[in-house]
Structures are given as C-alpha cells and as structure tokens.
C-alpha cells in the first residue's frame, strides 16, 4: 500500500476502488494475524466530539502496531482558548506522525490538511464518517465473501453515515439504497458524486419508501435519528422516523441471508428494536470490532511500515 503512504483520508472518495480492496485485504490479514506489521510512530487524537468506539479502536490499533497515542483533548489544550487552527496544525505537524480528528465541519479537516504535512484522518465530521464505512465493508465482506453486486439499504437520517455509505458502496460496486423522510435526505452533492462513481456497475437509490428499500436487501443498516449536536430535536424526530425503524417486519422482506448493521451507539426501541439488535441476523458486535482492524490497516498504509 505504498500508494497511500503520506496521504490524507478526509473522505472515502479520496480512495480508489482498488485501494479500498487492498485496505480490506490488509485488515483481514491483520485480524487473522497472518500479517504482522509494526510502525513505531505517534498518533494524535484531536476530538471535538464525544467518542467511544473511534477513540478506543484507534488507540488499541496504534498500540498493537507498536506506536504511541496522545489524546489531544480540546478542553485542556490551547484550542479551547481560541488558538487559530492554522497555528495548531503547524505545531502538531512537528510533534506527531499522524493525526485523527473528530470535528463538526468538514472544512476544518481540510484546513488541517492544508497546514500540516502529516497524514490527517477524518475520524468523523458532520459530512462523513469514512473510517466507520471501512469497518462496515470489512464486516459485509466477511459475511458474504465479496461486495460487488450486493444491496445495502440504509434507513433513517440522511446523515454523515448515509453519505459515506453512498461513496463506499459505489466504490466497491454495491447497490446502495437510502430511505429517509423527505426532509432528511443525504447531501445532494454526495449523492451525485456516488452516482458518478457507481456508473453502470451499481445502483444508487434515494427513496422515502422504507419497504421498497428493504425488499431483497442483503444488508439493513441504521443509525441514530438525531446525531451529536441535534439532541434538542430528538423527541420531535421520533414520529417522523418511526416508519424507518429496523424491526422484524422490515427484516422479513429483506433477502433471506440479510444481515443487520448499526454503527452505534444505538437507541433501542427507536431506530432499531432490541429483538433485531440481539437477533441472529445482527452483526453489530463484529462490526464494532472491525473498527480496530480496519483502522489498523489504514494507519499502517498511511504511515508505512518500519
């Protein structure tokens, strides 16, 4: 994966189909311990939003690779006192080997990438969550053996997860259906980008009909109905999103081999029922574990192995 060394990952669209394939292959090898790589480097985590899986999976991945992790909590650094982003980026560039950032605006990630020479990783923004989708694709590949030709249906809010699933699915040749209420559709620019990437290899469908989207799907995927920063809207959104709940009824019209994914945290009884979350079709815990393996492959590829 020398082609990725030194690059940024701000969007899944920064990767080619072949690069995603190679990343997933490497992740599978690292997970099975058939590949052993070391990188004695330092990863910085600059998270402006709360995190469990992303923070812990990146940290454990880096430690297992033989590297070090520094948690750059904005509340205890000069970032919280208004230090300009450009100044922070240029200083961290001289201390760290790689930096993962969880933030609100995609533009802030791009600014860090502009001012820092080290690789910058999008650990979640309001627009995209590329690292999660790498783990999602690894999970689907483990279940079905391949990705091309499968149909993934995402139900709920057209948020950063919907955007990244559109791009990731298009890149690997999966059909992606996004079912949302009319006023909560994914980013229109991302939709057009995904359609262009998919070409005639896969279908990209945006609909308001959850049943039509779920019919025959190989993967049913959902996320919380109100993302971080939207907590004040949560109660008002419940009746609007109720028809998009992943439950036994919706699962019954999916493909017989279908699996269920959720990027977590989950609000059981809202976007997904407890029965489905804990049911035989759920691959949620494997999906969560794969965050670590996919990110380990990403770190190795962006840093280069010693």
What would you say this structure looks like, in words?
It is a single chain. It is built from twelve helices and nine strands. It is of the alpha/beta class. α2 links the parallel β1 and β2 (68-71).
In terms of topology, how is this protein built?
Layout: H1 17-32, E1 42-47, H2 53-64, E2 68-71, H3 85-92, E3 98-102, H4 106-115, E4 120-122, H5 130-144, E5 151-155, H6 160-172, E6 175-179, H7 188-198, E7 204-207, H8 210-214, E8 219-222, H9 234-241, H10 248-251, E9 259-262, H11 274-277, H12 284-303
Parallel strand pairs: 1-2, 1-3, 3-4, 5-6, 5-8, 6-7, 8-9
Helix pairs in contact: 1-5, 1-12, 2-12, 3-4, 5-6, 5-12, 6-7
Main location: cytoplasm
Binding site for carbamoyl phosphate: 51-54, 78, 102, 129-132, 263-264, 291
InterPro entries: Asp/Orn_carbamoyltranf_P-bd, Asp/Orn_carbamoylTrfase, Asp/Orn_carbamoylTrfase_sf, Asp_carbamoyltransf_Asp/Orn-bd, Orn/put_carbamltrans, OTCase_ArgI
- What is the 3D form? globular
How would you name the CATH homologous superfamily of the largest domain?
Answer: Aspartate/ornithine carbamoyltransferase
At CATH level 3, the topology of the largest domain is Rossmann fold
Question: What is the CATH architecture annotation of the largest domain?
Answer: 3-Layer(aba) Sandwich
- What proportion strand? 5-15%
Tell me the distance between the termini.
Answer: 13 Å
Taking pLDDT < 50 over at least 5 consecutive residues as the criterion, the unreliable ranges are: none
């Amino acid at each position: 994966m020398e082609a990725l060394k030194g690059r940024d990952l701000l969007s899944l669209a920064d990767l080619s189909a072949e690069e995603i394939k190679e990343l997933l292959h490497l992740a599978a090898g690292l997970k099975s311990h058939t590949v052993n790589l070391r990188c004695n480097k330092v990863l910085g985590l600059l998270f402006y939003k709360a995190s469990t899986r992303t923070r812990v999976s990146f940290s454990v991945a880096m430690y297992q690779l033989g590297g070090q992790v520094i948690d750059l909590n904005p509340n205890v650094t000069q970032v919280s006192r208004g230090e300009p982003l450009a100044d922070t980026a240029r200083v961290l560039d001289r201390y760290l080997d790689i930096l993962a950032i969880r933030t609100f605006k995609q533009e802030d990630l791009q600014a860090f990438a502009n001012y820092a020479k080290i690789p910058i990783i999008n650990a979640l923004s309001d627009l995209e969550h590329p690292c999660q989708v790498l783990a999602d694709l690894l999970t689907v590949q483990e279940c079905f053996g391949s990705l091309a030709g499968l149909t993934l249906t995402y139900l709920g809010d057209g948020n950063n997860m919907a955007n990244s699933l559109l791009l990731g699915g298009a890149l690997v040749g999966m059909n992606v259906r996004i079912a949302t209420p009319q006023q909560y559709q994914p980013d229109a620019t991302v939709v057009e980008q995904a359609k262009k990437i998919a070409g005639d290899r896969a279908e990209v469908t945006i609909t308001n009909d959850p049943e039509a989207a779920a019919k025959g799907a190989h993967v049913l995927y959902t996320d919380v109905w109100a993302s971080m920063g939207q907590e004040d809207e949560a109660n008002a959104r419940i009746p609007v999103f109720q028809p998009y709940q992943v439950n036994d009824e919706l699962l019954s019209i999916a493909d017989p081999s279908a699996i269920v994914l959720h990027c977590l945290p989950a609000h059981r009884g809202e976007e997904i029922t407890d029965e489905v979350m804990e049911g035989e079709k759920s691959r949620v815990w494997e999906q969560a574990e794969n965050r670590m393996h996919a990110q380990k492959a990403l770190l190795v590829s962006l840093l280069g192995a010693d």
